[in-house]
Each structure stands twice: as structure tokens, then as C-alpha cells.
Amino acid sequence: MKIAIDGTAASGKGTLAKRLAECLGCDYLDTGLLYRAVALEALRYGLSSLDDNFNDPLTKKLFEKSTRIELTTIALGLALPIADSPDLRSQKISSLAAIVASLPEIRQALIEKQRNFANSPPSKKGAVLDGRDIGSVILPEADFKFFIDAKPEIRAKRRFAEFKDTNSNQKQETILKDLIERDKRDSTRQIAPLKLLTDAFFIDSSSLNADEVLQIALNYING
Questions:
Q1: Within 13 Å and on the Cβ side, how many CA atoms surround 125?
Q2: Does the bond joining 122 to the residue before it have cis omega, within 30 degrees of 0?
Q3: Higher-confidence residue: 207 or 52?
Q4: For residue 77, how many other CB atoms are within 10 A of its CB?
């Protein structure tokens, strides 16, 4: 069984994917962590300053051929699954990962890794992958596809609560601004943009808790 879950940042897609995998006895892969891992390595090249228009000299370095070759090598060397860590969850890494994900070399390097995981999951029972192009690019043949979304204000509130637990100084207003910018970047990028597919089951999690979202998804899978 292959399950593809796409959606916006902080919509609850990761929580749903992990809980579905547990319920169904499948393996789970957070594909966003792959891009975050590459982004974290990108900081070694001084790419800590971000600009949506890529006018910042440090951000421009991300698009230099030599840097892209280095990052592609990093992507090819990643071992799945990626171990989660607080460093990978910072807002800076989240923003930088969105830019890294727009680079075709990086995406191509990671596509086969994700597909191989889904086709040969460790449990041999199935795989649940979540991200932003799973149903459209990585697993277009998935048995079940979901798209999770929520109002930006709700997502910002959720992300603020997550950061608060880690003693982050992020303000909710800043998080909301970053989420809106991330949504725009993800949905308008030329390579594998985030989009709601016609064959994906849509869940608006704005007024739902994690248990309710899980039950809706299970009901859909079980028919």
C-alpha cells in the first residue's frame, strides 16, 4: 500500500502521515526532512540570509553552479529515513528548504530515493509519504492520496505553539507572514508546485483536531 499526503506547512499532514502509518503498520517518510537536511548543510556555504527575490548576495550563492553541485552531492548521499532534530525544524531552515526544493538538481537527486523507499519499505507492508509533491510527482500511482490544508491564521497559531515549546522567540505574526510567503513559493515554483489534485481527498483541518483528521482519513481508506 502506498499513501501520498500533500499539504501546506503546519496543516497537520505530518501528524496524519505518522499516525496513519502506525495504524496501518506501514513505514513513514517525512520527505520535507530531506530538503531540510540539505538546507542545513547549505548553511555551511554562508546561505543564512534569505530574500524572496534572491537579490541578497548570500542567497544568490545558492544558485551558483559550484554550490548546486555540492548540494546535489549532499542530497545523493542522504540515508533514509532522516533522523528528526530541533535544528531541522527552525524557521530559518524551513525557509531555506523551500528555496532548496526549487532547484531541479536537488529534486531529481531525491526523487528516486523517495520512490525506492515507497517501493521497498522496511516493513514490507506499505509506506506513507508526506510532502508537497508526493501525489503529483513522487507517487502518482499511490493507492490513496490526501491533501491537507487549514487557514493560515490557524496554521500560524499551531506553529507558534510548537516553537513556544522549544523556547523559541518567534512571534506569531512573523510566523504567519513566513507561512504565507512559503505557500506562495510552494504553489508558484516551476518545478513540482504544490497543488490539490483531482484524485486527492481534501481535508480542511482548520476546525479539526488530530484524532478527527485521522478518523476521516481512515474512513476514506476503509471505504
A1: 11
A2: no
A3: 207
A4: 9
For cell 526523487, what's the residue? 111
Could you say which DSSP state residue 133 is in?
Answer: S
Look up residue 105 and give its amino acid: E
| Contact of 30 with 17, CB cutoff 8 Å | yes
Alpha-carbon gap, residue 78 to 33, rounded angstroms: 11
Residue 190 DSSP one-character state = S
Measured distance CA(53)–CA(186) in Å, rounded:
14
CATH of 2-214, one of 3.40.50.300, 3.40.50.450, 3.30.750.80, 2.60.40.1120: 3.40.50.300
pLDDT for 59 beyond 70: no
Residue 92: predicted pLDDT: 80
Three-class secondary structure of residue 81 per DSSP: coil
Reported pTM: 0.87
Which set of grid coordinates corresponds to residue 49? 540570509
Q: How far apart are CA 131 and CA 73, in angstroms?
A: 22
Evaluate if residue 203 carries a pLDDT over 80.
yes
Distance CA 191, CA 35 (A): 14
pLDDT tens for residues 126-158?
999 999 999 999 999 999 999 999 999 999 999
